[in-house]
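Need tokens for this chain, all 112 residues.
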Amino acid sequence: MRLVVCILKDYRRVEEILLGFVELGVTGATVVDARGMGQILGSEVPIFASLRGLFPGSAVDSQIILSATTEPKARAVVALIERVCGPLDQPGAGIVMTLPLDDLRGLKPEIQ
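Here are the structure tokens for all 112 residues:
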């Protein structure tokens, strides 16, 4: 099992990604609103406000999509995210990673 973590600046992509999850057979995900380092430093720490330009898109909240799935589906999810968001090596496109899950409890067997 893998945990897919996707951090998006463009909230408009979330729905398209979740619909793609359904098409891939990924039946569960959690979406969390988040604030990045640039946004916090730029707005809450006055000395860093002048550095705001170093953090592109830092004025916008991010969304984090979390999903536990099988390794083959995790690879397909990463490919889906790149299709939706564009090349992830471009600034502001998003970040995606997968992490191994050594112990996972509480999911229905058909999800695993």
